[in-house]
Design a protein that fits this description.
Blueprint lengths: L1 H5 L36 H8 L6 E2 H21 L2 H17 L5 H14 L4 E2 L1 H23 L3 H21 L3 H11 L20
Antiparallel strand pairs: 1-2
């Protein structure tokens, strides 16, 4: 029993440590970074930054990227290339998840095409991400239908995609952004998602 009395109290291991030893706790009970005594970066915060979408975004980048989608989709329809539909879908997915960072089409727009148009025109990011989500669903569904042997339905979805992307590319009309604005005004999308987007469906995007 005397040996047990000599053991340090368990709570001593839960106190903040200036040494920053592994397992030590920093301020507010957050695990400290070894050697620094500073709280470690939380996993949710790191994931949020990893999947971050730019806000605001350059309108001209979005329009140039939409133009690239139009070209690819037209070629896919005219040549009846199913594999090119897969390429289109594979372009939408990373743009939805990460923004332009890992999308070749978006990077081409950011680095080459948009700067040639003029000074950046900044618009809210969440509606553009919503529009990318619609494009992702349409292109993935089209590819699935084509592979399932339902070509008419698959190419019809690609035709819808061409129309929507053309409206954004050539006249700056973002249908996905309009839908986002309507849903937000009806309370289906919380205002906290985009405080500046309440009237996004009422103005030209």
């Amino acid at each position: 029993m005397s040996q047990l009395a000599d053991l340090p109290a368990a709570t001593e291991f839960l106190q903040p440590s200036a040494s920053g030893m592994p397992g030590a706790l920093g301020a507010n009970g957050v695990p400290a970074v070894p050697g620094s005594g500073k709280p470690a970066q939380s996993a949710p915060g790191a994931l949020k930054r990893f999947f971050a979408f730019p806000n605001p975004v350059n309108e001209y980048v979005a329009r140039c990227t939409a133009g690239i989608v139009v070209v690819l989709a037209l070629v896919a329809v005219l040549a009846q290339w199913k594999w090119l539909v897969a390429v289109i879908a594979a372009g939408f997915v990373p743009r939805l998840a990460f923004g332009p960072r890992v999308s070749p089409a978006a990077l081409l727009s950011v680095k080459v095409l948009a700067p040639r148009i003029g000074e950046a025109k900044l618009v809210p990011g969440p509606p553009k991400r919503f529009a990318q989500g619609i494009g992702t669903v349409l292109s993935l569904a089209a590819f699935a239908l084509l592979m399932a042997g339902v070509p008419l339905a698959g190419w019809t979805l690609i035709a819808f995609l061409i129309v929507a992307a053309s409206l954004e590319a050539f006249i700056g009309l973002c249908l996905g952004c309009k839908i986002f604005g309507v849903l937000q005004r009806r309370g289906l999308i919380p205002e906290g998602i985009c405080a500046d987007c309440t009237n996004v469906g009422r103005r030209k995007n």
